[in-house]
Amino acid sequence: MSKAKNNLCSVLLKEHFGEVVQKIGTLLMKKGSMPLRLLIIDSKLPLQKVKKALCVLIQHNLVEFKVGSRGFPEYTLLTDNALLLLRYPRYIYNAKTLYGDTGELIIEELLTNGQMTMSAVVGKVTLRLSEATESGVSVNQVKDVFVKLVETQFVQRCSVLQSFDAEKPVAPTMNVYEKEMYLIPEIKLHLIRKSEGSDEPPAKKRRVETQEDKQPDEDIYWRVNFDRFHHYLRDQALITAASRRLGPKAADILRTILRLAETRSDPWAPTTCCVSQQEVFEAVVKETNIVKPEIPPYLSVLTEDSASLLSKVEDRGGGVYTVTTYKALQQLVEAIIMSVVEDRFGSKCCRIFRLLLMKKYLEQKQIEDLAMIPAKDTKEYTYKLFQEKFLNAHEVPRTMDHAPSRTFFLFYVNISQVCRMVVERCYKAAHNAISRQEWETRENKRLLEKQQRVEAIIATLRENSADQTQIDEVEEMITPPERAQLSHTKSVVNKLERSQLQLDETMFILTLFINFRK
Amino acid sequence: MTEDGKEVSDMQVDLETRIIQLCQQNPNGVTDKLMQAEISGTTVKERAHGLNRLLSQDRLEILKQGKQLLYRLKTSDNSQKVKGADNEEKIVYQIIEDAGNKGIWIRDIRFKSNLLLTQVNKVLKSLEGKKLIKAVKSVSASKKKVYMLYNLEPDRSITGGAWYSDQDFESEFVEVLNQQCFKFLQQKLMTAREATNDPISERNASYASSKDIWKFINELGISKVTLSAEDIEAILDTLIYDGKVEKTIVASQVTSGSTGGMTRLYRAVEPLIESTGLMRLPCGVCPVMEECQEGGAISPSNCLYMKQWLDY
Ligand code: SF4
């Protein structure tokens, strides 16, 4: 694991869970797995705090525990999961596009709490929605969206306690049965409805209630199924690519095919399962406003395009299609890396890089001739790329003594290696963006606090229906230069946040590809 | 006599070859009259000029037949050509002749002839003086001179073809052509998109054959030298490496003009992604990223690149 990745995990933990969790997380990253006792010693924190931090981490599925070699439970940080913290806004955003405000809030609740029971989620979301909107939403509606999210597997059950021996308190084994993973339990909606009106959160209220009034799903916890989201995001990336290359209609058709294949194939196989032309016809006509005769030409351009998004596996019955996920992903990755090379080293270097990617092994002289770049410049560019490890060289000695003057140097590209390198850079860049953001807020702390105070005062004034002059007076407590500074800080922070999301997009595709190659 | 060593113009060379051809056809000698009849479009002076040069190069000889003068080709035997030369010159001439239009490097002449460098230099100079051989600079190594027979056209690998002038690679010229070709294809893609709704005909309409592009470039008149279709294909290939163009090869129909080989079709393509997230912030291109660290001399909080980017 690299330093850049660890650093990024560390700042992410701090941003989301505070400094204690960050400290514990960082320790775990440094040492690999650790038992509780050592964690206390190394962190120099009191037992309670360490326990609490571990709880938070476990709840968010960031720490794993199992019995170590000495018979004690040992904790391990799941760094890959920690990196997903960066992607939370994207999950929420996508839930919104798929299932509206309700979906957005459900996912948001689950993400901020790590895991929750269905009744708690439904109760909380209903409450929040009725606060936010005039009309409010019924418990039933919220429940329906939740059920839909489970059915589409965006939300899944957490593993449950399987065996725990109270005599020998070592790590319990957790398990989840596959067939139960997406099973909806009974919940008593009327209980939620009752608590809806009251100001107290439902969870608090339940504690004093009798067995009768208890929710039956108390020990069934749910969490966000990241894998499913990644699957969705990947498909989304392919659809966007299709749209750029071949227009919106091609994208619509590809979306339909992906959706048809989605439920029946292993999402991470190199190709999706097959979809017959007939199915495509039916689904496309039903779901989009594309008419049937338009479809075959689009299918054929999609299959013939060099981005290799779709491929025709058989001619039977008008054709059977599969989405060549892996190949398409590779195209995307290559496009990303090209853009990195181009922006960093210029278009000529990019030409050399792509040339090598296409022709595999080439000598200096061949590069020069094919890329049509003067010898001197070619030398400079290849060495630059070589130095930055974007190119590798293969030595082919003509004589036994390996004398450099009698050795061919064949340059080539190792795409996985470059991919990993770029991901590293992304980690570092994301870390930098977060650090900068922290710094910007720290620098303007006083001002930001002042703004908050002023806003609070104005809010109370409004509530007490004070007259406008009074409000204006309070507002003027922030001077124009301060105002300018505030708006500047705001735009800076926005920009940094946006760039973090964009970085994550790059990382997402690249890591997906790396995992595919494994 | 024109022994002033001036560049021989094309016309003159042309005239000389014609004279030689005529002489070859009439091995018994050509009279002045015949020459006048056969080689039309030249003045007496020009002809005399050409004949004189050929005579001075020992390639023709003059005979007298009665009152008439007869021109006859000298037997083009090597020993004949280097008549009056010593053995060394003969050997070197032989070696250079074997090298053909690729030419031969002075070092290799030395090895093959087993002569000393000073000797070789002397011989080469004398052969050059007699206009039997010439020295040509090679593009692959600017300081390297190769020797070949005087009347040979140097090989492409020596001159570098259309992309070189005076041993310099015309990278700007290549760039201009690269851009023009892309513009042409892009234009085609645009019109194809506007013209039709059907994706297949849109794709087909966006293709252009290398011949079309070649014609377009020639009509633009940006090139001083004449470019071959292969030259344009080489340029188009660079566009493929730039990721802006893709190529397909189809078997062309046998039309009256063509022999029905392969036709290379090119079209502009949209990139798959717009730009990557990494490159949207300065760290993507930052040259000092390795040194950048919170608390270090360069850090995200004091970084100037960041400041510029954020203030922008
Ligand atoms: S923060 Fe500044 S110095 Fe550090 S990597 Fe980014 S651009 Fe470079």
Automatic annotation (TrEMBL), chain A:
Gene3D superfamilies associated with the record: 6.10.140.1450, Winged helix-like DNA-binding domain superfamily/Winged helix DNA-binding domain
Keyword 4Fe-4S: no
Compartments, record wording: Nucleus
Residue intervals of the RNA polymerase III Rpc82 C -terminal domain: 145-332
Domain of life assignment: Eukaryota
Keyword Transcription: yes
Protein name: DNA-directed RNA polymerase III subunit RPC3
The species this protein was found in: Limulus polyphemus (Atlantic horseshoe crab)
UniProtKB/TrEMBL annotation, chain B:
Keyword Nucleus attributed: yes
Transferase keyword on record: no
Alphabetical UniProt keywords: DNA-directed RNA polymerase, Nucleus, Transcription
Subcellular location(s) of the protein: Nucleus
Coiled coil residues, start to end: none
Family, similarity comment: Belongs to the eukaryotic RPC34/RPC39 RNA polymerase subunit family.
Role, per record: DNA-dependent RNA polymerase catalyzes the transcription of DNA into RNA using the four ribonucleoside triphosphates as substrates. Specific peripheric component of RNA polymerase III which synthesizes small RNAs, such as 5S rRNA and tRNAs.
The protein's name: DNA-directed RNA polymerase III subunit RPC6
